[in-house]
Amino acid sequence: MQTRASNLVGRDGEIDHLHHLLTATREGHGGTSFLVGEPGIGKSRLSAVATTIALDTGMLTLRGRVGALGTLVPFRPFTEAFLSLIRRGEMPPPEGLGAYRQVLGRVIPDWSDTAAPQATGSPVILGEAVLRLLELVGRENGCLLVLEDLHSADPETLAVLEYLVDSVGDSPVALVATLRSEECAARELAQIAAQRGTADLVELHPLDRDQVGQLIGDCLEAAPSDVPDVLVDRLWQDSAGVPLVVEELLQEATRSGQLVSAPNGSIEVVEGLRTAVPGSIVRSVTSRIEKLGPESRDLLVLAAVIGHRFPLSVVRRATDTDERLLLATLRAGLAAQLVGPDEPVPDWYAFRHPLTAEALLAGITPTERGLLARRCADAIEELHPGLPGEWCTMVAELAETGGDLLRAGRLFASAGQRSFDTGSMESAVKLLERATTLLESDPDTGHRADILGSLLIALSETGQFENSAAHAATIEQMAYRNLDSRKVASLYVQLANFEHMAGRWAAALTHVATARSLLGSDAGDADFAPVDAIAAHLELARTSPGRIKSATALASRAAEAAERADLPAVACDALQLLGILSREKDLDQSIEYFHRARQVAELNNLTFQRVCSHIFQAGSILLATGSLVELERARQQAMGIGAISLAYEVDGTIAQALVMRSEHERAGRLIDECLDFTRRVRIGRSATYFLATKAMLEAHQGHRAAMEAALTEASSWGGERASYELPYSYGLARTFCALLEENRELAESEMAQALAYDAQNPTTFHTSGKNGLGLLLGVLSGRNGWEHLKVVNATSASRMRWNKQFVHLSHAILLGRSGQGDEAAEQIAEALTTSEIYPMARHLGLRLVAEAAWTDGWGTPVDWLRQAENWFHQAEISPVASACRSQLRQWGETVPQRRSGSEQVPADLRKLGITTREYEVCLLLVDRIGNKSIASRLHISPRTVEKHVASLMTKTRQPDREALSSFARTVLQD
After folding, report:
1. 180 strand-pairing partners
2. What is the pLDDT of residues 292-314, one digit of tens each?
3. Which distant-in-sequence residues (6+ apart) come within 8 Å of 316 by Cβ?
4. HEC-encoded secondary structure of 761-826
5. 966 burial class (0-12, 13-18, 19+ CB within 10 angstroms)?
6. Distance CA 600, CA 563 (A)
7. Residue of 662, 663, 668 whose CA lies nearest to 841
8. Among 183, 372, 596, 711, which one is least packed by beta carbons within 10 Å?
């Protein structure tokens, strides 16, 4: 008589839901279902049904489980799922993943490249990589990823899962996740996802009485009518409708001989039915274990102390058990359905249900449990010296259970530091916080200080900026316990960085001052370098006209001290900041700072810092020359080390350069890709920059509504109102939009606002106007003269290629006003050479300068206006094109009438002012036909043709009609 159900009872609605989910997934519309319920309710069985459905319809399936140690092993379910793909030979070639292959090295050990360390620990970047692999796996017929026991999941796993849940809607990927109904981070994630409509929350409720009867009949292979009511009533009552408990109780009743099969196939209850609640599982498990014998029981109890999952080798070492007895116990446990192999990990076994381990532990005292925990911890340390991987946290848990709090705290600290080093910051925070709590009485305050320092960094990286007062109190307590003042100062530096990242600059400055007072004047470079480095960043964060100068002084001192003290990471940080700060005054020096930072990073194997320095250096080269070659090369390096966020930031810079080059289509694609990424991964700081660049893109095409929409969205991210964004958005977006609307007054006002913001808080966006377009507008209005030009020319920023074109134009106007027309023309030639790669700015500059040149009598303003009019007409920026035509008319020049089809007029003829209709007449003059014939073909009067012929003769300077016909033939044949 079997006691396990062959069918899933009472879950028809849930199975239909899974059918719909998988059908939609095969059609390219994935989704997520969270199966939630208490232990034993049937979550795993329902996920197994989903797997069967998927396999039957040709989908690829993956499965990963968190397990009892899941909180201590980041990304375990993903690793298990992907390793199964490799074992089955179903892993697609990784080349199709590009740079994301390197990112996946965190969860697929075979793909980890130790020669190229991970550049980012961001779970959302890993989430994008996992999603791309799943899409690759399911590209033909969809795939199903089952994640079990998420109630024990680590924060990193949940962060990746949250990203997947939000992103699989348009992918051939289905997610089915199981978790208990208890309060936990995974349940909160599931509830929020369900509220947002990105996932379905499937609550599995207990079975009702009839369903329990069906389950019993299915287990016993009997019709529901053949199951005694007394059996159904008792099991329904004692199990509370939990299927696993029903099966456990049924198995115990069968083994105890209380149930027998009658000759007619019905089920009979013998000698009444005896069960108990709510401890039925405990008694059921206990009775089965007692049949195994005392030695086997002791082995399984010790295994339960380790956890729901346990390694056989540790049980063997902790009990010093004979191999035969151990194997006999396993065989008996398998037969009794107490334990089973924990596939796919060799040497590991698991209790069939977590309640089984809990039932075993219910039979021993806390003292016995503590003793067994210490024995297991010692056995693991003997078997695995150094406690690599999950062994460290496992021993820490056992040491805490065994009452050895100092040992547990130090091991949690070690595990936390490992998580910190590998970028698993959420896990690092949890482990280091546990260590901090356990080590409160540890006399080794130096060790505690090291732990707190790492914890503060991890908290900053994860955005957990609460409890700063408690951290400050802990530092004070350590100082009171005679912690070395240098270490106390170091902790205050870390706390200052913590407050800086939180945006609490006043508190950060206070902690920097405290660190300085503790160090005194006699401290060495190793102590002062980190203090000056954070002080430089804080100075740059202040709103002050002198912030650039003071930040530069601090960063210089930090860089010099860090290099003397051999602190490469601090040196790189300070040198990069110096490179950014020096761009306005000396571009060559800026490039040299970044070059030095690259050298320091290369010598010390600081891969991420090396790539960052290369990107900053390439940015300075772009500003100087306008060339994107080096920046695109640096971007490839970022992609090569898996620094996806960094690569997107480079894309933003490239997009800005493309806008300046009027390569609007390519710039738009890049900006949209960047925004899509930052919106998905919720990187607000980057999103504001990308949105400001989008506003610039729209402004440079004269699209005011679209520009305002982008800036409004930037404000919603907290962006445009940020001081560092304002000169950029006003100088490069709003001012240009006003100029392209021919609203010079508004343009002046917008640029004045940009310059005012820059004066209040000097920006590091050196192309926003102060040293370029702002100078030109001031010269045109008469506000700026030779002295202002001299001041601007003294800056390195005036030699940045974007700014340089406007500086040349400004110089030309001032020379023209001084009667130096030839010298002014030379400056125009320089401006045109510089602006070759910036067509919109080039022609806008010609349009702005032409009026001054006409007034002062120098240059060729008519030609400049015709060039500008033609370009802006082609670009469909009608206000500027119309203004150019109007100005030409005022000067008595012939002006082309911009009708539909004017683009058909050859450029040389357009320069002569020949209109579309005149060009049509010119085409017919080639055949030397008369006015009546031309009028008939063009459906106009002969007199109108006569006027067009006369106009053509004037514009082309031909003496008569015959000469005009010859001219037409010659030009059109060319």
Report:
1. 37
2. 788 888 888 999 999 888 999 99
3. 323, 326
4. CCCCCCCCCCCCHHHHHHHHHCCCCHHHHHHHHCCHHHHCHHHHHHHHHHHHHHHHHCCCHHHHHH
5. middle
6. 9
7. 662
8. 183
3-state secondary structure (DSSP) of residue 179: strand
Bridge partners of 340, per DSSP, are: 350
Strand partners, 268: 260
Q: What is the C-alpha separation between 390 and 69, in angstroms, rounded?
A: 8
Q: Report the largest interatomic distance among the alpha carbons of the chain, rounded to a whole angstrom.
A: 130
For residue 483, give both structure tokens. 């912690």
Cβ proximity of 707 and 730 under 8 Å: no
Instruction: Give the neighbor-by-neighbor strand order of the sheet with 309-311.
Output: 309-311, 348-351, 339-341
Whether residue 17 contacts residue 202, with contact meaning beta carbons closer than 8 Å, is answered with: yes
Contact yes or no for 739/747 (Cβ under 8 A): yes
CA distance 394 to 373: 10
Cα 429 to its chain centre, rounded Å, is 20
CA 99/CA 639 separation, integer angstroms: 5
Whether 203 contacts 181, CB under 8 Å: yes
CA dihedral 453, 455, 460, 465 (to 10 degrees): -110
Residue type at 846 in one-letter notation? L
pLDDT tens string 786-818: 999 999 999 999 999 999 999 999 999 999 999
Residue 399 near residue 411 (C-beta atoms within 8 A):
yes
Omega prior to 278 cis, within 30 of 0: yes
pLDDT at residue 719 in the model: 42
Distance of CA 541 to the CA centre of its chain: 24
Q: What is the model's pLDDT at position 71?
A: 45
In this structure, the dihedral spanned by the alpha carbons of residues 552, 557, 563 and 567, taken in order and rounded to 10 degrees, is -90
The torsion angles phi and psi of 146, rounded to 5 degrees, stand at -105, 125
- 151-166 per-position pLDDT tens digit: 888 888 998 999 999 9
Alpha helices in 177-222 (DSSP H): 185-196, 209-220
d(CA 61, CA 18): 14
867 and 846 Cβ atoms separated by less than 8 Å = yes
What is the per-residue DSSP string for 533-584?
A: HHHHHHHHHS--TTHHHHHHHHHHHHHHHHHHTT-HHHHHHHHHHHHHHTTT
DSSP letters for 677-717: HHHHHT-HHHHHHHHHHHHHHHHTTT-HHHHHHHHHHHHHT
Q: From the centroid of its chain, how far is CA 159? A: 11
Can you tell me whether residue 1 is helix, strand or coil? coil
**Within 13 Å of residue 515, how many CA atoms lie on the same side as its CB?**
26
Q: Residue 900: beta bridge partners?
A: none
Residue 246 contacts residue 216 (beta carbons within 8 Å): yes
Residues forming a β-bridge with 35? 178, 202
pLDDT in tens, 95-154: 888 888 888 888 888 787 655 444 446 778 889 899 999 999 999 999 999 999 998 888
- What are the distances in angstroms from CA 42 to CA 7, 125, 496, 504, 739? 11, 33, 50, 49, 68
Which is nearest to 452 in space by CA: 434, 428, 436?
436
146 bridge partner residues = 63, 176
To the nearest 10°, report the CA torsion of 131, 136, 141, 146. Answer: -40
The two structure tokens encoding residue 99: 């740079």
pTM exceeds 0.70, yes or no? no
Pairing of β 309-311 and β 348-351: antiparallel
Nearest to 13 by CA among 40, 39, 38, 42: 42
How many separate helices (H) and strands (E) can be counted in the chain?
48, 10
Distance CA 346, CA 253 (A): 34
